[in-house]
Amino acid sequence: MLAFAIVMLLAAAAMLTPIFKRHDEAAAPLGLGRAACVGLPVGMVAGLLGAGGGFLTVPALNLLAGLPIAQAIGTSLLIITTQAIAGFLGQQASVSIEPRLVLTLCICSAVGSIGGAQLTGRIPAARLRRVFGILIALVGVGVLLRQIFALLRGS
User: Which of 61, 62, 75, 142 has its Cβ near the most Cβ atoms within 10 Å?
Assistant: First the structure.
């Protein structure tokens, strides 16, 4: 979890600071080699830490692959879905799931995603990126503090 928090804070810093060139306009099509160079490390971190999702995929797509932020968000949702299906297929033999819980979460997440997608088009790219970076930073700090307090308590 400590590594997870550090990766989140690095992703937030990349979104909030001018280290990388931001892509707010339509970029040239992403070549397969560049896509592989972005996707492989993101997938490795996701597999290693058990998470990756939007907090890692969106900055990678926007800052490294050159997609505009709104397009990076939409693209990351498809990537995350694919990762989730692959992860589920890999775990299904050894993990028991509660079907009603999964169905409820899937339906509610889908409805929320549709609402969020409607908002994305109404928010300027720079503000969307800033809000995203701040959200990642807050969650990263929360996870980091939780780990620090756990270490101090000796748990």
Answer: 62
